[in-house]
Amino acid sequence: MSRGRQYFAVVVLFVGVAISSALFFILRAQEDKAESLDFNFRANTRISDIQDAIEDNLDILRALGSFYFSSQEVEREEFRTFTKGFIDLHPDIEALIWMPRVLDSEIKNYQEIAAKDGYPDFKIKERNSSGSIIDATSRSEYFPVYYVEPFEENKIIFGVDFSNDVAHFRAMEKAASSGDLSATGGIKLIRDSSKLGCKVFFPVYRKDASLVTPEERLNNLFGFLAILFDFEDMLSYKLQGRPRISIDTYLYDESIFGEEYLLYYHSARTRTVKPLPVSENDTKAAAGLFLIQDLRFGNNTWRMLCRPAPKFFKEHKRLYSWSVFIIGLILTGTLLYNLFLILNRAARVEALVKERTTELNKASLELGRINKRLEFILGATKTGIDIIDSDYNMVYIDPEWQKVYGEYKGRKCYEYFMGAKEKCASCNLEKVFSTKQLMVSEEVLMKENNRPVQVISMPFQNEEGNWLVAEVNVDITERKKIESDLKNSKDYIELLFKLIPSAIFTVDTNRRVKAWNKKAFEITGYTADEVVGKECRIFAEFPCKDKCGLYSDDVIKPVVAKECTIRTKDGRLRTIEKNVDVLKDEKGNVVGGIESFEDITERKNIEEDLKESESKFRMIYESSYDAIMLLNEKGFFDCNKRTLELFGFNTVEEFREIQPSDVSPQVQPDGRDSYTSSMEHIQAAFQKGTEHFEWMHSRKDGTNFVADVLLSAFQYRGKTVLQAVVRDITERKKAEKIIADASREWSLTFDSMADGVSIHGSNYEILNVNSTLCKLLGKTKEELIGKKCYQIFHGKNNPLNDCPLEKSKTTRQKEYAEVFEPTLDKWLAVSVSPIFDENGNIIRLVHLLRDITERKRIEKAKDEFVSMVSHELRTPLTAINESIKIVLDGSAGSVNEEQKDFLDTAKNNVERLARLINSVLDFQRLQSGRVEFKIEETDINLVVKDVASSMLPLVKNKGLEFNINLGDNIPKVKMDRDKITEVLTNLVNNAIKFTDKGSISIVTERKHDNAISVCVRDTGIGIKKEDLDKLFTSFSQVAPREYKKTGSSGLGLAISKEIILKHGGKIWVESELGRGSAFIFVFPIVERRIA
Amino acid sequence: MSKKVLVVDDEPSVVKVVVFRLKKAGYEVVSAGDGESALKALEVNKPDLILLDIALPDIDGYEVCTRIKADETTKSIPIIFFSASTAMVMDKNAVLNKYGVQGYLSKPFETEELLQSISNIIG
Q1: Between A and B, how many residue pairs show a Cβ–Cβ distance under 8 A?
Q2: Closest CA to A176 of A509, A571, A473, A471
Q3: Closest Cα in chain A, distance from residue B13 (Å)
Q4: Does chain A have fewer CB atoms within 10 Å around its N or its C terminus?
Q5: CB A457: neighbour CB atoms within 10 A?
Q6: A722-733 CB burial, b ≥16 within 10 A, e <16
C-alpha cells in the first residue's frame, strides 16, 4: 500500500471529524448556556422560597421575644393565646417553646403553677445518653420546656431540660451570652428520629437589667424562647403548589463544626439524605452547575446549596448538537470505508511478514531470561545456595554450608538440613517442580540454632533436560529481630498508654481523635466511645486553636507545659497543662498528633490561694491600724509602719533593739516602775503564751498615751519571740467617759420623767422601766423587768390585738390610745413608738403611760355641764319663742306696728340664742366624738356648685362678684357631704359678711397627686397677723366692732376645723389686712389600688 | 267632733303655749304635768294623740310610753315625743321604732312643725 494513499485517508478522517466536532461544540456551548440560565432561575426560586420560609418562622420567634420583653411575666394561657395565632397561620411550625431558667429552689413553685394550669404531673426531665427521657438529675439550675404549643403534638418534651445535650447547650450558651438568636445544628426529632430538625433559641432577660457585657447577660438570663423546625414539613408546606423543578437542595449550618452541620437535604430524585462537601471550593470541584446562598441570623450562618438532579438534564436533551455530530461522523465513515476497500489487500501481505518477525524476537528474549537467572544464582551464592533434584536428592551445596552440614552427596535434602526422615510438611519443592514457577518461602534452620532464612526456590532444566531446583537461602535473622522488636514496642506503647497517669490522646490530620485513654475520660468526662472519630475541640474551650499545637502549623512543636482551658462533658471549665507533638510515619510525613495533659485546676487554685494569703498577711501587717512589733530578749527587732507613726520614729532601724520601757514614762499610772512592770508582763507572755493589759506609753517627743497591749509568743526561726500589738485607746477612753456620763444623765432623766416609761423588746419583754412607772403600777423595777408586757399591763398570757404596742409593731409608727384601766381605777394615755435598727427592723418599743384620770374627769364634767346647760336653756326658750309668736301673729289679739317691731326684735334674739345653743352643742358633740359621719365617695365640685347656687342670692344682694373655678381631674374622695356643705356655707357666709366690695371666689384643684384643695377667697377687710392664730379657736371673734352683727356664735370656724380634722384634712387661712382673706382646706386622696 | 290631744310636760309655760296653739287649731286639749297624772288622765279620758315630754320629774317619758303601749286599752293611741334634749337627734328612727311612737318634736319648735306633725297623724 502506498504511503501517499494512507496519508490521504488520514487527512479525510481528520477533516471529517474536525468539521463534525467544531459544529458539535458550537451548538453544545449554546445549549450549555440555555441550561445554565434555566438552572439559575429555578435554583433562585427555590432558595428564595426556603429563605422566606425560614425568615417567616424566625420572625415569629422574634415577635414572641418582643412579647416577652414587653410583659415579662407571661402566663401559660397568654402564651397559648399569643402563639395560637401564629400556629394557625403557619401549620408547619413544629413547636414554640418557653424554657424558663429554674433554680433548684424554685422547682416546687413552678410545679404548683403548672398544677394550677392543669398539669399536676409536671416534672423536670432530661434525656440520657441513649436518648430516652428520665427524671432530671439534680443541679443548680434547669431550663425545662415549660410552655409548648401546640401542646398535644409536643407533650413528649413537656418538662424536658435539653441543656445537658452538647448541641443544645452550645446554642443556648451562645444565645444567652450574645443576646441574639442561636440555633442548634441538625438534631434528630424525638417524636420521629428519622427526621432532622433544628431548634433556634432566643434569650429572654430580666426586665430592666443591665445587659452590656456577656457576663451581665448570662447573670440576668430569665429563660429561652425556642422554635423547633422540621425542615421537611416546613418546606413541603411552603413548596405546596410549586412545580417540580428537578433540583437537589441542601441546607448546612456553616457555624457548626461536627456532624450536625447538615440541616436538611431535599432530593428531587431519591429523597435520601446524602451530605455533600461543605466548602465552596469542594463544591466547585465536584459539580458543574450549582448555586450557593448564605442566610445569616444571630450567631448562625446557614448555607443553602442547589444542584441539578439527573432529571434536570433529561429535560434538557442535547439532541441537536449530537445529531449534527453523528451525521458528520457517518459521512466521514462512508468516505473512509471506500478508501479502506482499496487499501486492504496490501495490508494483509505486510501483516504476515510482521508475524514471523515477532516469533523470532520472542525466542531470543527467552534465551536472555535464562541467562539472567543463572547470573542471579551465581551472584547470590554468598548467602548460601543449594541444588536439589526432583527426588529431593542433594545435587549441589556451596562450600561454606558444606563446612556446617558436611558431605551432601547421596543425601536427601530433608535429612541433610533438618535431620528428618521424610520430606517436610512445609516444603514447597513439589509445587515448584509441578508449576515450574519461582517460589519464595521462609524456613527455620534447626541445626543452626533456629536461624531464620528466606528460601528462593527457582526451577531450571539441566543440559539433559531434567528439572532441578536451585535454592537461595538468605539470612533474615536481622529482619526478624527488627520485626519482633517492632511488635514489642507497639505492645509497650499500648501498655504505656493505659498506665501513664496523664491523659493521652492521639488525633489524625483532621484532628479527629483516634485513641483516648482512661485518664482522659476521668478528666473530661467523655468516654472513648464518645470522642473517638470526633474532632478534639468537642472538649476544648472555644477558641482552642490559638494555643494548640495540634491545630496551628505555626506553633513550634513539641509544645511543652502549655496551660489551656477545657470544658468537661458536664459543662465545667478546667485548667490543664499539656504537651503536644506531631506523629510522623516512617517516611517523615505528619500523620497526626499526640497530646498528653493533666488537670491542674486544683493546683492552680492552691497556688493562687497561697500567693493571696501571703500578700494578705503582708497587707494586714503593713496597713494595720494597730502597731505591731516583734521582740526578743534583746528588745524589738521588727515593727510595722503604724508603729513608727504611733511612737514618732522615722525608720525601723531606729526602733530596733530598744526596750519596751524606752517607749514608756518612768512610772505607770498605778505608781509602779515601768521597767519592772514591763518585764513582768513579758515574762508572763513567755510563760502563758499571751498577755493582755493596758499600758501607758510615751512617744519619742515625750507625750504619753494610754494603749491596749496584747503580747503573744510564737516560734520564729527556732526561737520563741513575742509579738506585741499596741493600740492607742486614748479616744476610746474619752468615748467611754462620754458614754458613762451620758448614761448617768439618761438614767436620771428617765427616772424623773412625769410619764411612766417602759422599754420593750419586740418579743414584748420589758427591758427597762422608770421609777414613775413603778410608782404608777405599785411595783419595783425588779418585779417588772424581764416580764412580758401583756402579763403586767393586762394580766393576760397573750398579747392583745388592739393594744397600741401590737398596732405599732404592724404600722411601724407611733400609736396612741386612751384607755380606762379598771385594776388601777385610772384613765391612762398610752403612747408607743418603735425604734429601728439600721436595717429598718424594730428592735425596741418605747411605751409611755400618762395618768389622765383627772383630765378625763374634767372633760366628762364639762360635757355633762354643757349638755345640761343647753337643755335647761332650751326649755324656757321654747316657751318664750312660742309666746312671742302667739302675740306676734295676732292669735292673742291684735298688736300695733310699733309693738310688732319690738316683738320682732325679741323673736330675732330668741332665735339667735337658740342657734348659739345649737352651735355650742354641735361643737361639743364634735369634740367629744359623739357625731357620726356619713362617709361616701363624693365629688367635691358638686358640693361647691350646690353651695354656690344657694349662696348666690346673698352674694348678689351685697353687690359682689361671685367666681367659681372648678379644677379638672379631681377624683371623688370620701367625705360626709352635709358636713362639708356646712363648712363651705360657713366660709362663704364669713366672706360675704366681711366683704363690702369686690369679689368672692371658690377654687378647687388637685394638689401633688395626693390631695385636693378648696379655697374660698374674698377681697374683704382681711385679718391682722396676730389674730390669725386665734381664728379657729372656739368663741373667738376677731372681727372689728362694726362687723359684729347678729347671729354669730364665734364657733363657725372652730366647728369647721373639727369637721375637716375628722376627715383627715387641714384648714388654714392666708390673709393680708385690708386686701382680703383666703380660707383653704385640703383632703387627702385615699389611693384606690387596682386589684 | 274635734280630736283630743293629751299634752304632757312638766314646764307649765310650755304647756300653756302648746295648749293655746292646739286649741286655736281646733283640737280639744287636756294636759298633765308629770308621768303619773298623765297615766291617770288616760284612765278617765282617752285622747286621740299624746304629745309626751321625755324629761318628766317622776317617771320619764320613755317609761310612760312603755306603760301606755303595754296597756291593751291605750296601746293604739299615737304618741309624739317632745324633748329639749339633743340626745335623740342622733338615732331618731331607732328610738321611734323601739318605743313604737309616731313622731318626734324638738324644743324649741316651729309652730307649723307642731301642727303639721299632729295633723299628719290624726287629721
Answers
A1: 56
A2: A571
A3: 6
A4: C
A5: 20
A6: bbbbbbbbeeee
Test mutation, B11, B86, B89, chain A, max A CBs within 10 A = B86
In terms of average pLDDT, the best of A164-178, A191-205, A684-698 is A684-698
Q: What is residue A380's DSSP assignment? A: T
* Chain A residue numbers touching B86 (CB-CB < 8 A): 867, 870-871, 921, 925
CB-based contact B87:B96 (threshold 8 Å):
no
Which pLDDT score, from 0 to 100, does residue A605 have?
A: 85
Tell me if A388 sits within 8 A of A395, measured CB to CB. Answer: yes
Query: Per residue in A141-187, pLDDT tens?
Result: 888 988 888 888 888 888 888 888 888 888 888 888 888 888 887 78
pLDDT at A564: 81
Asked if residues A1016 and A1002 have their Cβ atoms less than 8 Å apart, the reply is: yes
What ipTM does the predicted assembly reach? 0.83
Residues 6+ apart with CB under 8 A from A185: A167, A198, A253, A256, A258, A259, A260, A261, A262, A263
Contacts of A889 in chain B (CB under 8 A): 111
d(CA A879, CA B14) in angstroms, rounded, equals: 5
Angstrom distance (rounded) from CA B13 to CA B31:
12
Burial of A647 (0-12, 13-18, 19+ CB in 10 A): buried
d(CA A118, CA A77): 11
Cβ–Cβ below 8 Å for A874 and B108:
yes
User: What is the average pLDDT score of chain A?
Assistant: 81
Letter string b/e over residues A994-1032, b meaning 16 or more CB atoms within 10 A of that residue's CB: bbeeebbbbbbbeeeeeebbbbbbbbbbbbeeebeeebb
Residues 890-909 of A with CB under 8 A from B: 891-892
Chain B CB contacts of A923 under 8 Å are none
Closest by CA position to A826, among listed A876, A868, A893, A776: A776
Nearest to A858 by CA among A928, A939, A958, A957: A928
What does the DSSP assignment read for A218-232?
A: HHTEEEEEEEEEEHH
For residue B41, the distance in angstroms to the closest alpha carbon of chain A comes to: 24
Are A871 and B86 an interchain contact pair (Cβ–Cβ within 8 Å)?
Answer: yes
> Cβ B108–A867 below 8 Å, yes or no?
no
Tell me if B85 and A871 make a contact (CB, 8 A cut-off). yes
pTM to 2 decimal places = 0.36
Average pLDDT of the residues in A743-754: 89
Residues 907-936, chain A: which have Cβ within 8 Å of B? 910, 914, 921, 925, 930, 932
Whether A1001 has a pLDDT exceeding 90, the answer reads: yes
A295: which 3 cell numbers?
442566610
C-alpha cell belonging to residue A687: 510563760
- The residue of B22, B107, B113 whose CB has the most chain A CBs within 10 angstroms, and thus the best one to mutate to test that interface, is B107
Q: Is A878 an 8 Å CB contact of chain B?
A: yes
What b/e sequence results for A289-321 when a residue is b if at least 16 CB atoms lie within 10 Å of its CB, and e otherwise? Answer: bbbbbebebbbbebbbbbbbbeebeeeeebeeb
Percent of chain A surpassing pLDDT 90: 8
- The residue ranking higher by pLDDT, A285 or A900, is A900
* Cα A639 from Cα A622, distance rounded (Å): 9
Q: Does A891 contact B24 at a Cβ distance shorter than 8 Å?
A: yes
Q: What's the residue count for chain B?
A: 123
Report the residue of A877, A878, A884, A909 to disrupt the B interface, i.e. the one with the largest count of B CBs within 10 Å. Answer: A878
**Spatial distance between the Cα atoms of A1020 and A118, rounded to a whole number of angstroms:** 73
Residue pair A104/A141 in contact by the 8 Å Cβ criterion? yes
A295-306 residue pLDDT tens = 888 778 888 888
| A875 to B84: CB separation less than 8 angstroms, yes or no | yes
Q: H-helix or E-strand containing A63?
A: helix A3-70
pLDDT value of residue B90: 56
